[in-house]
Amino acid sequence: MDAHRRPLIDRTPALLAEGYAWLPNRMRETTGSVLSTRLLGRPALAVRGPRAVRFFYDESHVHRHGAVPAPVLDTLFGQGAVHTLDGDAHRARKELFLPLLEADRVARLTDHVTAAWDEAVRSWSERPRVVLFDEAAVVLTRGVCDWAGIPPGAVDAEPLARDLLAMVDGFATPGPRQLRARRARARQETRTARLVEEVRSGALAAPADSMLARVARHRDTAQGPLDSRTAAVELLNVLRPTVAVSWFVAFAAHALHRWPAHRERLRGGDGAFATAFAHEVRRFYPFAPFLGGRTVRELTWHGESVPAGGILLLDVYGQNHDEELWGDPYTFRPGRFLDRPPAPDELIPQGGGDPAHGHRCPGERVTVGLLESLAVRLARLEYTVPGQDLRIPLRRVPTRPRSGFAVTGVRAP
């Protein structure tokens, strides 16, 4: 270490206090594209920008094994999940998720979810008040379970939806939310492992090309079939991120409420605008604050270094609000994506890199497809937005409108 350089202060308490703003705030204090700091007791280097995305996803730079903190594994991803693997092991496990990259499979999942949405809307009109965040989770759960080949009688959609939401809601914070997330994961891993075992024994039928059948028969490289608990973890890693689209549905409703001029264009069925609107919701609203991995060797970026065994952070929220990339990052403007589609390493709400082989979320195409269709349905839905707390606190990770976006007087189109 340079004798004149001050020891780095651990910034974990500041992260817990500032949430999404923590890394962008620190970046503004430096050059704006790189930051040396300390996190979770380790030296850390934070980077931002399209070139930094490629640097971050280079497997010779970063490993995921051992990088994900235990509280995140025990809530969000699950022990032994694909997110913890590297190299050939990661590529072999990633094959499980390749259907999420196929356009026809994404279309079928969207069809299942929109059918569940249309059915739910009919019941909403009979209720005095509906919280869109919660209701979207049930709709998404029903749709993705149907698509995944889980028989209707094998799961109860509403408690499963609550547990899947809890896994996402509690991963980034100590206290009651994390405790609920741990309990939810343990409960659903046990139930889902039982489904896998029933498929393997022949007691439960699952379509041969369904996700349930795929996880039941999957084999890792030179190893045998996944143990039933790991198979359950990976099936939940399809269900959970699909249900996490509930956050984007609530954000889409928030955007239509704040900027109602976009409603007419969505209602008219302009597909290109629906795609642009989905991208802008994902860019503008906060979802993942950053991503991290353990450094394989000493790395240097723009003159700043981190030793082997340190942490490399990719500033997701900061990049999605980078003035150099977007010009007016704090303006909600879907038209920016009509001018040109987003480059893969520019818009990174669900990570960057190659989703087929790297660590970028393979469900990103699913998220965009679902959000396109559900945003159009939201725009066509008639409802009243009563007084409520629609603030989106940046200190809370993951955040959402505090009220979950409640509506009354729902009238089906």
Automatic annotation (TrEMBL):
Its cofactor is heme. The keyword Heme applies. Gene3D superfamilies: Cytochrome P450. It holds the Pfam family p450. CDD domains: CYP152. InterPro entries: Cyt_P450, Cyt_P450_E_grp-I, Cyt_P450_sf. Keywords: Heme, Iron, Metal-binding, Monooxygenase, Oxidoreductase. The keyword Oxidoreductase applies. Belongs to the cytochrome P450 family. This is Fatty-acid peroxygenase. It comes from Streptomyces hyderabadensis. The gene is cypC.
